[in-house]
């Protein structure tokens, strides 16, 4: 019996050896590991949408931004409005509002006016709460091929691109650029507007899979004759439709500010994160600098791709007001110390 078991065991070992895949034992990584990650191409130039359809206003509560006011015609996900299409609204004298055509200027700015709505009368009757409103804007545009892009939607609460919902830049400060993927062929845009009767909408190229945005950076001030070693918050954007790993964020150039690197372990697809990174002066500034400002380079890189930007740091005298930063104990973000 033992003899037969030994024979079976021997045959099993032999079969496993010959069934094993061929392995290249050369030094270094395999050829597949040397391949650069492939991404969708970006749009080559900005896309301008000239004609929009606008409808409103719908009456809303102070914090009711998620209510769908278009359910009578398929809702926000399925509506395909036409000029003259009607909806019910208690803000209109006759209880009805229509989709109307408006035109954007060369910078993507759109102004509209609900002429049949008397806002002063509504305020006289209901107070300020009677004037809180929602409007919508709708447009379609053609795009060739699936492409990466950034969308600037100023004074827009949220928008839907091909039925997928994204946040807008409701306050319109000019620094929110949302990474999206445009599909091949006809794309549909629906904007939800809750602040005023104007908006700005632009679709611009996404220059690299990982981008660094500095317009809303959280930065400390340098004080003359004092060293600086504080946190800075820098916005990084993943414009790809896949997770990026080991993104490198670099600040400084070893001139006034020491060069510092930080590895972002991973970022999910089409996301924006504000990354804390330490900023430190290389030496104390004793001599006055023109304009009391320095320019600091900022760079983000992933594989063979990179994107450069810069931030401005103010330099203050010790008797002037100045900004200082801390790391929040709640969420780990960089905040100004009040």
Number of helices: 4
Structural class: mainly beta
Strand content: 35-45%
Largest sheet: 6 strands, antiparallel
The H/E string reads: HHEHEEEEHEEEEEEEEEEEEEEEEE
For the largest sheet, list the strands in their spatial order: 4-1-6-11-8-9
Report the C-alpha radius of gyration, rounded: 28 Å
General shape: globular
Distance between the termini: 84 Å
Question: What is the residue-mean pLDDT, rounded to a whole number?
Answer: 89
Which bin fits the share of residues in helices?
10-25%
How many strands appear in the DSSP assignment?
22
List keywords for this structure.
single chain; 338 residues; mainly beta; six-stranded antiparallel beta sheet; five-stranded mixed beta sheet; 22 strands; globular; disordered N terminus
Describe the structure.
10% of the residues lie in helices and 43% in strands. The chain is mainly beta and 338 residues long. The chain has a six-stranded antiparallel β-sheet, with no helix packed on it. The protein has a five-stranded mixed β-sheet with strand order 14-20-19-16-17, with no helix packed on it. Strands 5-12-7-10 form a four-stranded antiparallel β-sheet, with no helix packed on it. The relative contact order is 0.13. Mean pLDDT is 89; it is low at 1-35.
